[in-house]
Amino acid sequence: MKKKVLITGGCGFLGRHFAKYLHKKGWDIVVVDDLSTGLHPKKWPEHLKVPFTFVKGDMRAYLENHKKKYDLAIHLAAVVGGRAVIEGKPALGAHSLELDSSFFRWAAKEKPSKIVFMSSSAIYPVNLQGAKGAVALKESMVDFKASFPVFGMPDLVYGWSKLSGEFLASTFAKHYGLNIFCPRPFSGYGEDQELSYPTPAICNRAVRREDPIVIWGSGKQTRDFIYVDDLIEAIISYLPKLKGYEAMNLGSGKAHSFRKVAVLAAKYMKYKPKITNLPGKPEGVKQRYANVSKMKKHYTPKVSFEQGIKRVVEFLRSKHEKNRRVD
C-alpha cells in the first residue's frame, strides 16, 4: 500500500518540489492550497507536473472536515514572499500563526507518523548577523530542548512567526508524542522560484540583459544558498531517523553576496553589465550563513552555488525565449 502524505500550502515553490520528489518515491500525495500565493497545478512548469490530489481551499477547513490518516504531513502553508512583502505587511504574520495553531491542533488529534514544519534561518538572533562579527549560526543558538528556551531577537515579523511556530512544534512533540522535524533552511532557491525573491529576480535581470543590473540595498549583503533539490532530499532522507522534535540547519556553510549572484548570472549570459545598488530598499541582515555540521552527518549537498545559479539562468532564458516566440 502506498504511503500517504499531506502537503499544506503545497502549490508554492517548495511544495511543488516536495510533490515531484515524493511522487518519484511512490507516495500518494494530497496538496491543499487556497492559491492566495500558490500556483495552480495546471500552471506548474512541465518538469514538476506529477499526479496528485489537489484540494483548493483553506487548510483550516480541510483539516477540520477530513479525518484521513497520513504517514507524513508537511506544513508549508504560511504568508510568504520577498522581504518587501514581509516588511510592508507585518500584520500578515498573525495569519501564519493562525495556520500553525490549526495545523498542530489537528496533528495532536490525528497523529501522522512524521511531521515536517518548515522553520527558517530568520529565527536566529539578528545581532549575530551584522557587517562585523557575524558567526556561523548553530542550532543551539535557538534551542527549545534546553531547560530554559534559548533564543534572541529574530529577523522581522516573519522570524517571530517561525520562531513561535517552532516553539509550538517542540511543545506539541513533547506533550502529544509527535515526531516533528523543523528544518531551518537558509536561502533556498531554484529555477521556478517566484520573481519576488532576490535570487531569481537578479538572474532574470541578467537574462533580460539589463545594463546596469540593479540590486536592492548595498549588494554586499551575504546569504547561505542551498539548491532546492538538495533542500528537499536533505529533509526527506532524515525522516526515518526522526524521533520527537528535531531542528536542523540546511545550507552550504558558505556566504555569497547578491552581487556575486549578479556577476555569475551575467557570466552565464555572456555579457559584462555594470552592477549598481539601490540604497533605501530592504536588504535585511548584513551576513547570514549556517553551521551545517549537523546536516553533514547525514547529507551533503550535491549542487554547488555556481551550478545552481547556472540552472536558474538557463531555465529563465529558455522561458524568456519561449515567451518571445509566442509574442
Automatic annotation (TrEMBL):
NAD-dependent epimerase/dehydratase domain boundaries: 5-251
InterPro entries: Epimerase_deHydtase, Lipid_A_modif_metabolic_enz, NAD(P)-bd_dom_sf
PANTHER family xref list: BIFUNCTIONAL POLYMYXIN RESISTANCE PROTEIN ARNA (PTHR43245), UDP-D-APIOSE_UDP-D-XYLOSE SYNTHASE 2 (PTHR43245:SF13)
Protein's recorded name: NAD-dependent epimerase/dehydratase domain-containing protein
